[in-house]
Amino acid sequence: MRTIEWKNNKIKIIDQTKLPGKLEYLYIKDLETLWHAIRELKVRGAPALGAAAALGIYLGVKDTDKKNFKDFAALIDKTAKYIASSRPTARNLFWGIERMASVAVRNKEKPMSAIKKLMFREAEIIIEEDREACRKIGDFGSVLLKSGDSVLTVCNAGILATIDYGTALGVIYRAHEKGKKIKVFACETRPLLQGARLTTWELKKKGIDVTLICDNMAASLMREGKIDKVITGADRIASNGDSANKIGTYGLAILAKYHKIPFYVAAPMSTFDTEISTGKDIPIEQRPREEVTELFFKKPIAARGVKVYNPAFDVTPHELITAIITEKGIINP
Ligand code: MRU
């Protein structure tokens, strides 16, 4: 199963808003549809957004008849700005854009048709690299898990958040492949329920023992000794290790510290933002109020007109993180 790929001259994605009810694919042939797919979380998760951005830049330039590099570069810039305006937090989205733009600049002496080919190749490389990186994260991270462990996770940092394997869930998949018996507790992840809808769906498909809990149950489970480790993904990691991830992750890290449970972050290098020194500089996305007041946009569950605060991410300070698992190895404090 692939979350995102280039197929029939279009970007093919799994429409994640339809899961777990239906496994439905979308074929995207214009930038506006891609922008909305990203904004509305049809495609989501930091590494998948890196691939979406890369393919999006190619989509934006592939049919242009611009004859000189100056005009071609201006089109790349316009496309990049548009895609970058879809969601602000995941570093991978900007990293994907930057990689595509720099291939063009490096080859600016070549004919536009050759540059387009190289840009398409770069998007393919980005996709291949993610597949490999996730498996390496799995290799490194699986050493930290022992048979019989119960692992708590939040949001979805699995196949659906990457190309086809996952970061936090990649660690669990690899441990499972090695024959370790791992039990997973998945936080449902209010307000958009990525844990309930996506994580439980893909873990069940992979035959992993998974139990769904409401977000506010995590503390009790830890006190009862039901959680051995916490592993989450990340959307952006600052130079000092502060890590942004789905709202609620910071709370889990505090709970883990209090209960002396290791708290791991699993993420590829493309999630690191070395331009910023601490998590204070990570832009946090604010999302529409309806995500909180209406159960998945369908049914009112709050007083009409109530004020809502809906940040999509929070930042876990590095001192609460036991280690960061990357494709290059495990980063200890
Ligand atoms: O709002 P989302 O669903 O895009 O948030 C995703 C997360 O918070 C993931 O944990 C993160 O992107 C890491 S995915 C490997």
Structure keywords:
single chain, 333 residues, Four Helix Bundle (Hemerythrin (Met), subunit A), Rossmann fold, 2 domains, 39% helix, 18% strand, globular, binds 5-S-methyl-1-O-phosphono-5-thio-D-ribulose
Structure description:
The chain has 333 residues and is of the alpha/beta class. Helices cover 39% and strands 18% of the residues. The chain has helices spanning 31-39, 46-61, 69-84, 91-106, 112-142, 168-177, 194-205, 218-223, 249-258, 290-293, and strands spanning 4-7, 10-14, 25-28, 150-153, 183-187, 209-213, 229-232, 236-238, 243-246, 263-266, 272-273, 294-295, 299-300, 313-316, 323-326, 329-331. It has a seven-stranded mixed β-sheet with strand order 6-5-4-7-10-15-16. It has a four-stranded mixed β-sheet with strand order 11-8-9-14, covered by helices on one side. A three-stranded antiparallel β-sheet has the order 1-2-3, with helices on one face. Helix 2 (46-61) runs antiparallel to helix 3, helix 3 (69-84) runs antiparallel to helix 4 and helix 4 runs antiparallel to helix 5. The mean pLDDT is 97. 5-S-methyl-1-O-phosphono-5-thio-D-ribulose is lined by residues 41, 44-47, 90, 155, 157, 161-162, 167, 194, 233-235, 245-246, 312. Residues 41, 44-47, 90, 155, 157, 161-162, 167, 194, 233-235, 245-246, 312 line the site of 5-S-methyl-1-O-phosphono-5-thio-D-ribulose.
